[in-house]
Design brief:
about 475 residues; alpha+beta; Beta-Lactamase; Helix Hairpins; Heat Shock Protein 90; 5-stranded antiparallel sheet; 14 strands; rod-shaped
Length: about 475
């Protein structure tokens, strides 16, 4: 049945209605079976109770005259319907020990006689048989005297047609109830299924309207109740947001690369066009080649920075190691010592020993190198760069403070943007791509950390603070 429904590709609402109707049919069938069995047993119990009552009233009214029993009518046995004919009547006969009819009740008149089935064991017994085409039950009770001598039999007969008629009527009522209940259940089940699946139709319609150029749209998630479909819509919206961020990142990458590479390429083309416009001296060609080489170096730096940024923003599978950040800081400061001496900048550090985090060593190196390199680059001769490391609760705190050029509040809001470089002469005189802080921010946020920058203004120095979790945290 399941395979057939799969091949037919029925809608979910139809399949839900089918399974709901089938389950209800099975439940109703079991309930009806128990109800029918209970009613059947109850009718037969009432039938036996009526025969027991007739037996209790008739036995005391039987007297033994000689060898044969005689039924003596009295007021006590008036409740026995031995004069009533039909399904409600009780047919009574007195029989001899060998089954000869000694007495029969008035309601036997007009009916065919049936042969008594006297028990051979001499004990009470009941037999079901057919009388005049109707199901009948007869009970034979021995009639004995005080000494236990058998004098005859009391035969009580009642028609079972009333039981069968009631059971037949009950069968029709139960069948009609099942059919009517199934029709109502299927109709209501289909309506409920359609109503319950209406959010799915809304999600499908909304999803079909989303295009690559329209990723800011979201699926509806407010269906009036928070359920599994709400969670599904929220999950899809989260996926759409990630896709939107990814597409925007790629689009921004292409735009930034094209914009930043266009300037050196234009300069290179101008230098080459001027050199080829007319014959020049060898020294001029040498200067042109040197200028082209500088432009290509700048382009290489931009491409390298863009690739690093793209990899940093797209990190998914991290190889985490337990890293002693304190030792890393001392090591990287030693690496930059010669550059600091060349620029007459003093390097200092205040490092708390044994401060650990979980990260990729290469990423920690890139974060430290970018921050230290920027601090030295933008600190004038005679200035100081101080790096501190300590633990704050469950975070590793790295801080790089310098006495350099600083920045304004407006510049602080753009420091971590791609290719941003301040317009101040000190910055413009220094070579750079404007990608270092963007790469650093992407790496820090990959590990669930945070980077902030602060300054008291131009020429007042700056401080960059990085906070990373001490223990492993899901990116």
């Amino acid at each position: 049945m399941v395979a057939l429904m799969s091949r037919l590709r029925l809608p979910i609402s139809v399949r839900l209605t089918f399974w709901y109707g089938l389950s209800l049919l099975l439940l109703l069938s079991v309930f009806v079976a128990f109800l029918y069995a209970g009613f059947h047993v109850s009718l037969h119990r009432d039938f036996n109770d009526q025969m027991d009552q007739a037996q209790r009233l008739l036995l005391p009214a039987i007297q033994n005259e000689g060898e044969m029993p005689v039924l003596v009518p009295s007021d006590a046995i008036r409740s026995v319907a031995y004069q009533t004919d039909g399904a409600s009547g009780t047919y009574v006969r007195l029989l001899s020990p060998i089954g000869q009819i000694l007495y029969q009740s008035p309601n036997f008149t007009g009916h065919q006689r049936f042969r008594p089935s006297v028990p051979t064991a001499g004990t009470e017994a009941s037999y079901s048989h057919t009388w005049e085409g109707a199901p009948t039950r007869s009970r034979y009770t021995p009639v004995r005297d005080a000494l236990g001598t058998l004098h005859g039999w009391l035969e009580i007969t009642r028609l079972e047609s009333s039981i069968h008629r009631e059971l037949h009527r009950l069968e029709w009522l139960l069948a009609a109830g099942i059919v009517l209940g199934m029709l109502v259940a299927i109709a209501s089940g289909y309506g409920l299924a359609k109503r319950a699946l209406r959010p799915v139709a809304m999600l499908t319609e909304a999803a079909n309207q989303i295009r690559v150029t329209d990723l800011e749209r979201r699926l509806p998630a407010n269906f009036g109740v928070h359920d599994e479909l709400t969670d599904l819509a929220d999950t899809f919206n989260l996926m759409l947001r990630r896709l939107q961020v990814s597409f925007e990142r790629e689009r921004r990458f292409r735009a930034d690369a094209a914009h930043e590479l266009f300037t050196p390429l234009s300069a290179m083309q101008s230098e080459i066009d001027v050199a080829l416009h007319r014959p020049r001296e060898a020294s001029y060609y040498q200067q042109t080649l040197q200028a082209v080489r500088n432009h290509t170096q700048r382009m290489s730096g931009i491409l390298d920075g863009l690739l690093q940024l793209s990899r940093a923003e797209g990190l998914e599978h991290l190889v985490l190691e337990k890293i002693d950040v304190s030792a890393f800081v001392v090591q990287r400061l030693y690496r930059f010592k010669s550059k600091a001496v060349a620029q007459q900048v003093e390097l200092k550090h205040e490092v708390t020993p044994s401060v650990f985090t979980s990260a990729d060593p290469g990423h920690i190196e890139a974060i430290l190198d970018n921050l230290i390199d920027n601090a030295i680059k933008y600190t004038p001769p005679g200035g100081t760069v101080c790096m501190t490391v300590h633990r704050d609760a469950e975070e590793v705190v790295l801080s790089v403070a310098d006495t350099g050029i600083g920045f304004t509040e407006a510049e602080r809001a753009q420091l971590f943007n791609r290719f941003f470089r301040s317009d101040t002469p000190a910055v413009q005189r220094t070579r750079g791509s404007g990608l270092g802080l963007s790469i650093t921010q992407a790496l820090v946020e990959t590990y669930g950390g945070q980077i902030t920058a602060s300054s008291n203004g131009p020429e007042a120095g700056s401080t960059f603070e990085v906070r990373l979790p001490c223990e492993r945290r899901s990116p």
